[in-house]
Design brief:
- By secondary structure, this protein is an alpha/beta fold.
- It folds into three domains: 41 residues, lambda repressor-like DNA-binding domains (434 Repressor (Amino-terminal Domain), Orthogonal Bundle), CATH 1.10.260.40; 120 residues, 3-Layer(aba) Sandwich (Rossmann fold), CATH 3.40.50; 138 residues, Rossmann fold.
- The protein is built from 14 helices and twelve strands.
- A five-stranded parallel beta sheet has the order 2-1-3-4-5, with helices on both faces. Strands 7-8-6-9-10 form a five-stranded mixed beta sheet, sandwiched between helices.
- β9, α12 and β10 form a beta-alpha-beta unit.
Length: 338
C-alpha cells in the first residue's frame, strides 16, 4: 500500500507551527526566525517532506517546461567566465530546440541556497560542478526530479557527464613537466571556503571539488612518472578564474619557488596570466583550448564545454547520457616547447 504523501499541514503540526510559517520557510525565508526555520526544516527532513512542488504552484496541469541550471557561483559568473558561457550556450541550445525555458539558479550566496534550489519551478536540474558536501545538490535530489551533474560529484540517483579529468591532467602534466626540475600547479578552489594560498604537495584526497581533486591527482601522477617528488611541488590555489587573483597567486608561487620552471594551470585564463608574469623562461599549460589558448600559442587540454552543456540538458530532459570520459585531447603548442 502506497504511503500517504506528507503535506505542509503535516509538517506544521509536527513542528508546532502554523502552516503559514512552513510556507514562509520555503517561499519567503526572510520572514521566519532562524529558530522556527531550523525547526521546520528539521521536521520536514524527518517526515520526508521536500517542500512545496513548484510545478504545482506554477501550472495546474503538466510541466513547467523549464530547465534549471544550478550554477554554484555569483550570477555574473554566467556571463563573465568563458568556460561557463560556453557550457550555458550548449544548455540553451537544447532548451531552444525543445521549447524549454532556462532558469539559472545562482548559489553560494547564503544560507537559503538549498531552499532556493528546491523552490525553483523547473522540471529538471543541471548542476555545474560543485563539492561533495554541497547542500544544494542534496536539495535538488530531494525534489525527485531528474538531476544531471557536470564534472562531479557522482551521486546515486543522478547522471554524471564529465571528461576523465585525471587522465587528461596526467597527459598534459607529462607535457608541461617534461625536463622540468621545479614544476608548480595553478589550481582552482579546493573547498567551499575558497581560500587563496600556496602549499606544497596538496593531497588530492583532501579536496572537496571533484574536478580540482581529479586534476591534482593527474598532475601528481605525471610528476611521479617523471621522478618528481610531489611533496615538493607548490600548488597555488585561486578562488576563481579572475585574472587579478591569478596574478597574486602566481607571484606567491614565484616567491615560494624562485627557480620555478613549469606551471600546469587548470584554466587557460590562469595560464595566460602565468605566461605574462614569467615570460618565456617557464613551461606553461592551460585547460579548455579557448580562444586565449590559440592566441597565446598555449599548450592545453581541448574539450568542448558547449557539447557537454548540450549533453547535460538533453539528459536532464530524458535522453540517454553519452560517455564523455574520452572526449578530450592535449594540444601541444610553443608554451611547452622551450
Amino acid at each position: 500500500m502506497q504511503s500517504k504523501r506528507v503535506t505542509m499541514t503535516d509538517v506544521a503540526r509536527a513542528a508546532g507551527v502554523s502552516p503559514m510559517t512552513v510556507s514562509y520557510t520555503y517561499n519567503r525565508p526572510e520572514r521566519v526566525s532562524a529558530e522556527s526555520r531550523d525547526r521546520v526544516l528539521r521536521t520536514a527532513a524527518e517526515l520526508g517532506y521536500a517542500g512545496p512542488d513548484p510545478s504545482a504552484r506554477s501550472l495546474r496541469y503538466g510541466a513547467t517546461r523549464t530547465l534549471g541550471v544550478v550554477l554554484g557561483e555569483h550570477l555574473t559568473y554566467a556571463f563573465d567566465d568563458p568556460p561557463a558561457v560556453s557550457f550555458l550556450a550548449g544548455v540553451a541550445e537544447v532548451c531552444a530546440e525543445r521549447g524549454y525555458g532556462l532558469l539559472i539558479v545562482p548559489t553560494g550566496v547564503g544560507a537559503a541556497d538549498r531552499e532556493r534550489v528546491v523552490a525553483a519551478a523547473v522540471d529538471a536540474y543541471v548542476v555545474w560542478t560543485t563539492t561533495d558536501d554541497d547542500p544544494v545538490l542534496d536539495g535538488a535530489c530531494s525534489t525527485r526530479r531528474p538531476v544531471v551533474v557536470h564534472g562531479g560529484p557522482r551521486r546515486d540517483g543522478t547522471t554524471l557527464i564529465s571528461i576523465d579529468n585525471r587522465r587528461a591532467a596526467r597527459a598534459v602534466g607529462a607535457e608541461v613537466c617534461a625536463g622540468a626540475r621545479r614544476p608548480a600547479v595553478l589550481s582552482f578552489p579546493v573547498d567551499r571556503d575558497r581560500e587563496i594560498f600556496v602549499r606544497p604537495g596538496i593531497d588530492p584526497a583532501t579536496v572537496a571539488y571533484p574536478v580540482t581533486r581529479d586534476r591534482l591527482a593527474g598532475y601528481r601522477d605525471a610528476a611521479r612518472d617523471l621522478g618528481i617528488d610531489w611533496a615538493g611541488v607548490p600548488v597555488g590555489v585561486c578562488r576563481t578564474d579572475d585574472e587579478g587573483e591569478a596574478r597574486t597567486v602566481v607571484r606567491q608561487l614565484l616567491t615560494a619557488a624562485p627557480d620555478l620552471d613549469a606551471i600546469a594551470a587548470m584554466g587557460d585564463r590562469l595560464a595566460v596570466v602565468a605566461l605574462r608574469e614569467t615570460g618565456d623562461s617557464v613551461r606553461i599549460s592551460g585547460w579548455n583550448d579557448s580562444d586565449l589558448a590559440r592566441e597565446h600559442d598555449l599548450t592545453t587540454v581541448a574539450q568542448s564545454l558547449r557539447e557537454q552543456g548540450a549533453a547535460c540538458a538533453a539528459a536532464a530532459l530524458g535522453d540517454a547520457a553519452p560517455d564523455y570520459r574520452d572526449a578530450w585531447r592535449v594540444v601541444r603548442r610553443s608554451s611547452t616547447s622551450g
